[in-house]
């Protein structure tokens, strides 16, 4: 009935009854699991693979790093992760009307200042999240306005837009001295756009 050879079934059944018949690797893994658990628990359950492997090596245990990794994964233990674990407590209203797409997904322009797009994102830092708003000129692919804040305020995007408007105000074009100070090529931020 089983999709295996009968001899395989009887070997596994015999090994289950008598642990002495198990392969050497399995015996060594059982022994290493207790050592890994000891090192992990002695260090407040925060060590990862590398930090568990090194004390074992210092104790003259001949074990490969990949073996420690395999056994830790099998045991279901892992290192502590820095930062906070976030739980999303809000859910988007499916019936709510979304923001209208005013450019109909057509991100092309034939001249500067014809079309600007804005983006708002956040970056995790050691001190917490930093929120960044960008205004990008589609024609030149330059960031023409931006703002950074440690709190997500509603006016961060408006401040970025205001900076972009002031940077582009003179004769509808960017003055060269302002270009070097206020505009950042988008290629230098995220690589060349596709």
Protein architecture, described:
With 194 residues, this protein is α+β, with helices and mostly antiparallel strands. The protein has 2 domains: 6-75, no CATH class; 116-190, no CATH class. 40% of the residues lie in helices and 15% in strands. It is built from 7 helices and 4 strands. The chain has helices at 6-17, 24-42, 49-58, 65-75, 156-168, 176-182, 186-190; strands at 116-125, 128-137, 142-149, 184-185. The chain has a 4-stranded antiparallel β-sheet with strand order 1-2-3-4. Strand 1 and strand 2 form a beta hairpin. The model is unreliable at 175-194 (pLDDT under 50).
In a few lines, what is going on in this structure?
With 194 residues, the chain is an alpha+beta fold. It has seven helices and four strands, in the order ααααβββααβα.
């Amino acid at each position: 009935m089983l999709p295996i050879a009968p001899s395989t079934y009887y070997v596994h059944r015999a090994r289950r009854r008598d642990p002495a018949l198990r392969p050497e690797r399995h015996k060594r893994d059982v022994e290493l699991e207790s050592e890994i658990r000891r090192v992990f628990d002695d260090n407040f359950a925060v060590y990862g693979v590398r930090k568990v492997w090194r004390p074992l090596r210092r104790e003259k245990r001949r074990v490969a790093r990949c073996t420690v990794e395999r056994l830790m994964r099998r045991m279901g233990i892992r290192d502590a992760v820095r930062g906070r674990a976030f739980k999303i407590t809000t859910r988007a209203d499916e019936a709510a009307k979304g923001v209208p797409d005013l450019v109909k997904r057509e991100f092309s322009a034939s001249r500067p200042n014809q079309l600007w797009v804005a983006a708002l994102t956040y970056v995790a830092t050691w001190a917490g999240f930093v929120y960044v708003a960008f205004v990008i000129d589609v024609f030149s692919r330059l960031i023409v306005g931006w703002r950074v804040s440690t709190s997500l305020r509603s006016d961060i995007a408006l401040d970025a837009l205001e900076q972009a408007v002031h940077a582009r105000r003179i004769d509808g074009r960017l003055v060269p001295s302002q270009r070097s100070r206020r505009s950042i090529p988008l290629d230098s931020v995220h690589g060349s756009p596709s």
